Amino acid sequence: MPRDNKTPLIQKIAKQAYTTFRGLESSANSDNKGVEDKLNGLISLVTAVRASDVKIAPRKTKPSSGAAGLQSPPVTYMHICETEVFSMGVFLLRSGASIPLHDHPGMNGMLKVLYGKVNVRCFDKLEQNLAVTTVPPVFDPPVPPLQMTSAWRAVLRSVVEYSENSGPCLLTPVRDNLHQIYAVDGPAAFLDILAPPYNSDDGRDCHYYKVLQSALEDETNAKGHQEQQGEKGKEEEVWLLEIPQPEDFWCGGESYPGPAVSV
After folding, report:
1. DSSP result, the chain
2. What is the pLDDT of residues 27-55, one digit of tens each?
3. pTM, entire model
């Protein structure tokens, strides 16, 4: 079969994402092997994507000053496409910027770095009945009793650094569903695919969290333990508190300069 070299890679990714995640929606009545093959095909395409495929390039870091610097968003988003099945776009992080710990309710996703490096901390909430029946530790600073209804036991699944040469970071509705993303040693950009898209009307709204510290936790030991969390497979139970969107984080918008995408 002749190789298709005319269709832009980002267009191929969009079409593969649509067929893959539409298949996942009906996986109960479909061939699981076929769904797995489609997902592997999507992972292969996403692994190959580079900044040049979406017509972006690393930006020189310019020192910001005064009111202009304060008003510049730490993160911007380039919208590529969205259907009822998935959304796709590019996030651009300034040097030192981060996307706070947040969730993706009932969603699958892929994150593929296009330039720079990002550090991704992935968490999973434990079952709600565990959060309700387990007596929480004493936190420092203390958490008011009414706020404890918004506290969850969770597991820190991994802390991993990704670059443009890495494969995609994956999330599912039950695995690695919460994550925090930091730009490492300069600006960074990544392709982001979510399926289905965020939609508050369907119960898929974005929630933010912070990790609570136990009053009895030894800070030195805690720091040493966090430094060891550099490999996948290292898991640590933590408590998370749902919080409003942090005041120092907001996301601006930019025009997408790459090839047009249709699904």
Report:
1. -----SS-HHHHHHHHHHHHHHHHHTGGGS-HHHHHHHHHHHHHHHHH--GGGGT--PPPP----HHHHHHS-SEEEEEEEE-SS-EEEEEEE-TT-EEEEE--TT-EEEEEEEEEEEEEEEEEEPPHHHHHHSPP--BSS---GGGGGGEEEEEEEEEEEEETTS--EEE-SSSS-EEEEEEEEEEEEEEEEEESPPBGGGTB---EEEEE-BTT--HHHHHHHHHTTTSTT--EEEEEEEEPPPTT--EEEE---S-----
2. 554 556 778 899 999 999 999 999 999 99
3. 0.85
